[in-house]
Amino acid sequence: MGYKIKYINGKRYVYNKDGVDVTENFIRGSKEVLKFVKRMNITKAILQSRSPSCGVGKVYSGNFDGKLVDGNGILVSMLIENGVT
């Protein structure tokens, strides 16, 4: 299933194709990954490009049209904030 990211008043939200807000699921999953990264002392990550969680620099536009927009995924943002490159 595809997902889209929307920015509303500077906050990022993730929706599935049915329009259901799944942001908290992405945040919860990202926090679990971050716990593992810290526990394992991981400092670098290779992630899937363009996704709403792992995209770096460019993510899908959220219109399910295959177009990209500038931005990072939710997990990527958390990892960068915690010193992971």
Could you explain the architecture of this structure?
It is a single chain. The protein is α+β, with helices and mostly antiparallel strands. 29% of the residues lie in helices and 21% in strands. It contains 2 helices and 4 strands. It has helices at residues 23-39, 74-81, and strands spanning 3-8, 11-16, 58-60, 68-70. The strands form 2 sheets. It has a two-stranded antiparallel ribbon. It has a two-stranded antiparallel ribbon with strand order 3-4. Strand 3 (58-60) and strand 4 (68-70) form a beta hairpin. Helix 1 packs parallel to helix 2 (74-81). The protein is globular. It starts with a strand and ends with a helix.
Q: What is the C-alpha radius of gyration, as a whole number of Å?
A: 13 Å
Output the strand order for the largest sheet: 1-2
Could you report the average pLDDT, rounded to the nearest whole number? 87
| SS element count, helices | 2
Q: Which sequence of SSEs, written as H and E, runs from N to C?
A: EEHEEH
Beta content comes to 15-25%
Q: Assign an overall shape.
A: globular
Instruction: Give the terminus-to-terminus CA distance.
Output: 28 Å
Largest sheet, strands/sense/barrel = 2 strands, antiparallel
Structural class: alpha+beta
Number-wise, the strands total 4
Low-pLDDT residue spans: none
Helix content: 25-40%
